[in-house]
Amino acid sequence: MTKKLTHEEFVRLAIVKLRNGNFKGIHSVFSGFNEAFRKYYEGDDPVQVTNGFGEEGRLVIRPVKSGVMLYLPEDAPQGDRGEQALRKMGLLE
Length: 93
Known about the structure:
Blueprint: H1 7-18, E1 26-27, H2 33-40, H3 46-56, E2 60-64, E3 67-71, H4 81-88
Antiparallel strand pairs: 1-3, 2-3
C-alpha cells in the first residue's frame, strides 16, 4: 500500500493543483477540496484540519460565500481588505 500524504502535504498539493488561472487560492467547496479530503482520509474533517493550520499560520483562510478560500501563506492577499476598500473609495488616506 502506498503511504498517505500528511494532512499538510495534502492541503499544499491541493492548493497548487486545484487553483484556476491566475488565482492563488482555492475555494474549499467549489474546487472539490472538502470532498476529496474526506475521501482520501476516510471521513476526517477538512474544516477542523484547515482551521488548525490557519491558527498555526501554516495556511491563510478567507471567508467567502458558501465556504472559504484557502491560500498558502506565501500566496495570500496581503493587508486589510476593509482598509484597501476604503482607500479605493477615497474615504481613507
